[in-house]
């Protein structure tokens, strides 16, 4: 794709988007907290910080046997009213040369399919491909490894970063997600005004297990790579799921002055584990109302539009922005911090 001009790529993507309907919508910040009901259920508080979006029943423990996201949530920070799922990732921090850290703000994305408005948070895609079977209640999964430090152990086609030289989130930069010059590492270039992170989940299921001990082996990647809807599934994981993609726009504009950057050669941008792109990860807990996601896939509901055939209602930003919950870990996560929020001090407080 690299040889295509920007205009050609944009035209191609617009064409694909028209040919292949998919859900694409914004989710605002529900909370930023050291909580992880998937990997560390019950733990107060988890070793690193997450940014979480979706239904407001999100909590420290979400036992799939008793925690029904749909009935326990009274609102969602995502645009579709019927989506009470939770989605979360690590948080990006800027490291000042003086040793202080600052959380990087997240903004909605633009792109050829139009601008998404969110207050913090991220953009979510559900991409169907042929006959697609929606997740069942209790389904959960994660991708990425929060302790990995080796970029070579990450498939660039699934988790990647792109440098955005524009401060305008509506200016589309580059080709298909996780193609071309996208990198596993977080870009380290003062010309980046925003850094787009893409996390593409596996779209093939074993058809039996709603979860697995490592939260990954019940799912698998299909053939092909990138945001292609998942491709053909292997016989071990024959059930085709919607392909979920997270897209995060980290607005690094206010940190682009190289004079602020670490002088010891360490990275200016790290995730909340104090590791770069190699440790990027995404977590998902399914929580769509009834069979609304299945109907959305069957009826090829598109983007963040109302979709009567599936009973989907798209909420205005004021509505989903207003859905937030209280941070539980007693520690600051905003402004200049003397350490990443993973310290013992915060845990004792
Ligand atoms: C979270 O769980 C605690 C008990 O573990 C409960 O007191 C609290 O109400 C829950 N919060 C939400 C938002 O459900
Ligand atoms: C580091 O620099 C920032 C930005 O100027 C400042 O707000 C913060 O207090 C400084 N931290 C230390 C430890 O000096
Ligand atoms: C990104 O941050 C810069 C500097 O704080 C700000 O001027 C700009 O409006 C922000 N961009 C978006 C899309 O929010």
UniProtKB/TrEMBL annotation:
Superkingdom, natural source: Eukaryota
Keywords: Signal
Signal sequence segment: 1-19
InterPro entries noted in UniProt: DUF1996
Pfam families tied to this protein: DUF1996 (PF09362)
Residue intervals of the DUF1996 domain: 36-288
Record's protein name: DUF1996 domain-containing protein
Phylogenetic placement of the source organism: Eukaryota, Fungi, Dikarya, Ascomycota, Pezizomycotina
Keyword Signal: yes
Organism this protein belongs to: Patellaria atrata CBS 101060
């Amino acid at each position: 794709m690299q040889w295509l001009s920007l205009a050609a790529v944009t035209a191609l993507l617009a064409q694909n988007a028209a040919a292949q309907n998919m859900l694409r919508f914004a989710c605002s910040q529900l909370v930023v907290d050291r909580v992880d009901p998937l990997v560390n259920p019950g733990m107060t508080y988890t070793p690193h910080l997450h940014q979480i979006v979706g239904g407001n029943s999100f909590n420290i423990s979400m036992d799939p046997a008793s925690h029904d996201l749909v009935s326990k949530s009274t609102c969602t920070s995502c645009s579709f009213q019927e989506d009470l799922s939770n989605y979360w990732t690590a948080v990006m921090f800027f490291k000042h040369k003086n040793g202080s850290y600052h959380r990087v703000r997240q903004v909605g994305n633009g792109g050829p399919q139009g601008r998404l408005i969110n207050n913090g948070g991220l953009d979510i895609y559900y991409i169907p491909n042929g006959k697609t079977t929606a997740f069942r209640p209790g389904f959960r999964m994660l991708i990425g490894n929060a302790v990995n430090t080796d970029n070579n152990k990450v498939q660039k086609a699934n988790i990647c970063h792109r440098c955005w030289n524009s401060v305008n989130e509506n200016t589309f930069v580059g080709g298909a997600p996780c193609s071309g010059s996208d990198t596993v590492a977080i870009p380290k270039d003062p010309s980046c005004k925003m850094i787009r992170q893409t996390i593409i989940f596996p779209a093939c299921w074993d058809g039996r297990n709603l979860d697995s001990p490592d939260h990954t082996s019940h799912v698998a990647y299909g053939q092909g790579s990138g945001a292609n809807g998942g491709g053909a599934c292997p016989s071990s994981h024959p059930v085709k799921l919607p392909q979920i993609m997270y897209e995060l726009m980290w607005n690094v504009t206010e940190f682009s002055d190289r004079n602020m950057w670490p002088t010891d050669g360490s990275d200016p941008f790290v995730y909340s584990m104090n590791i770069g792109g190699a440790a990027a990860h995404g977590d998902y807990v399914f929580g769509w109302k009834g069979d609304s996601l299945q109907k959305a896939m069957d009826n090829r509901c598109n983007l963040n539009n109302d979709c009567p055939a599936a009973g989907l209602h798209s909420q205005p930003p004021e509505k989903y922005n207003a859905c937030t919950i209280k941070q539980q870990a007693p520690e600051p996560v905003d402004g200049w911090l003397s350490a990443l929020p993973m310290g013992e001090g915060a845990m004792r407080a």
